[in-house]
Amino acid sequence: MTNSFTTLRTDQAPILPFLETGGYLGISAVPGSGKTHVLSYLAARLVREKIHDDEEVLIVTFANSAVDNFARRIREFLQRDRQALLPDIGYRVRTLHGLAHDILRERPALLGLPEDFDIVDERIADGLLGDLTLNWAKANPQIFEYFVNTTLDESRRKFLQRERWPELVKAVARSFIRRAKDLQLTPAAVRGGAPAFDGAWSITAMCLEIYEQYERGLRYRGGLDFDDLIRLALTGLQTDPHLLDRLRARWPYILEDEAQDSSELQEKILRLLTERGNWVRVGDPNQSINTTFTTSQIKFLRDFLEEPGVVSIEMDRSGRSSTRIIDLANHLIEWTVNEHPTPAIRRNAFRPQTIKPVLPGELPPNPIDDPNDVVRLYHEALSPEREVELIVKSIARWLPDHPDRTCVILVPDNYRGAKFAGALDAAGIPHDELLRSSSDTRAAAKALGHVLRYLAAPLNAPLLAQAYRTVSLRFEDADAENDDQLDALRQQVSTGLKRCPQVEAYLWPRPDLDWLADYTPARDDQAVRAELIHFRTIITHWLEAASQLPIDQLILTVAQDMYQGADLDRAARDLALAHKLAVVLRQIADEHPAYRLPDLAGELDRVANNQQRFIGFGEDDLGYEPRPGIVTVATMHKAKGLEWDRVYLAGVNNYDFPSAEAHDTYRGETWYIRDGLNLEAEAVAQVEAIDKHADYVIGPATLKARLDYVEERLRLLYVGITRAKRELIMTWNTGRLDNSPSQPAAPFLALYTYFEKRANEATE
Model's pTM, two decimal places? Predict the structure, then answer.
């Protein structure tokens, strides 16, 4: 049996005794150490050697894309064994939500659920919460007045209350509700446990009212949200011993991937299922990068690794990166643990664990340190625009000489990613995007939004001109002989439409009222008239469709006309995007019967501006593999688990990577809230105090959230560095001009100093 499987490396072999002994095994695995390979190998061996009929090895992982990856690898291992005739039997790979769904399907009636219970779509749940918080914020202005910075003038406070406060209320309520469900606190339990509902506790009063309305909204829709799914799965295991015994028998071995991202509910579910042993937890505490915006907590893996009775091993060898890049990553940990300017960060940010190259003769070997491969920390101050320009020009020079290598631009947030994607588009550099939405999606949403906005006001000449510009630019004019002439034509048509005094005289001419018959272009060009007649045919068709069709069919009608002139590949891609957008808009229209075309155009604007994730239509939803010769643009969070030959780490300044120093600012703290309070952190602290029947004082939670954020951003920087195989370029920018200029992040300066010192020593 063993000979038919891949041989493990020396540092991976300590997992093998688990096959005989079982028990509890904790593995702390550095980036690139092969943890997915090892877990898949272990699962396949368990299936082949330990699993009997009606039993399965259960693998729990963090992301949907990892589910297919694990299943494929396990299947490949089993297919190498000629005795394994059924390579898809004997194991189950699930995310936590998938596992919770499986548990609830066993006995939904136990928890008062119908057999055909529904899970409310993430977008619908978010829309429900948004509506509730908007209405609540309008009806309860006194809470805003309690927390707003009183030094602001009245007109500015009114603007903020109207335009910014509802979104903050939504974020605070979302964090409160998620933590309450993580602690299994119903609205009734919160109401019964809260010591007050005024003063600082008005945060709980606000969130509780929204929580109650949110739960009623879910019940009205006959479904659960994803947090309910996990909470009720745990409740089922806690209240039904027969169900628990049955599942323990079905899953005698549980392997947990990405255990650094485990939440309190996940911890409780897996502890119940593995009370008799046979639990393997694999993760890297130094890559815990989701704690500030999910309910995951790094402490669960850290504590497990030190727990009595747990065999704890380190997989500390990695063949991913060259030694120069490994040295930088290790120095980041060493500097943080020993020299970080904030002592509290030294204790908690990282687990002292260094990356080591693989041993000679073992696979995969580390890339050789080639002097031609660039490892550089660009120390000069750059504006955000100059940073984009510099990196895109660098890629344009590098890419033609390295068509067989992969490359990525890693950014702190989606907004910056969209800027880089736009610059790559302008430079004609092929690229993929791992952002909230791709550039193709954003472009399609923007174009369709312009059309919808015009169709809602058909006599508005500027909107008509904008719709024309949108439509004309979406066409592929492969037959155009002169781009300058084409641009001039479009400009004349757009200008004429914008200045049209009576749009109805253009769209629906009569013998006595025909704008086009009387219109004289700047140049007497028949092409301008032909273009205006052609566009009139299209736009009147859309206006007729808008008066008769529901929104999804209207979008598809518009898309068919817009993409008719494109090449087949682009047309297929754009029509697929339009279909997806049509489905989303139909769902929104069903949820909001009062919405009209301007409201739906606003929803498209959220996608176009990269403010809303376009679920289910991105590479990261399906699994992503970097491609040679194609640049990837990704947030650092989306890059986890991936690797590239050349990595650009952009925006490493003290805003995106603060160090808890006096001049630092923090994303979670809204500038117009008094005393720099982080209301999300305070809301979570209040619900935790209710759960523990503990005292609460306003303020310390904000300070703790700052430290937690600093620690997580250090780990995020570590993740970014360790994506690089051969080359690494780091830059920082000064931020937007309407704020005080950002400075290079403290860890950037530490790494720069270290790297320059090493370089000088090497030349002496």
Answer: 0.81
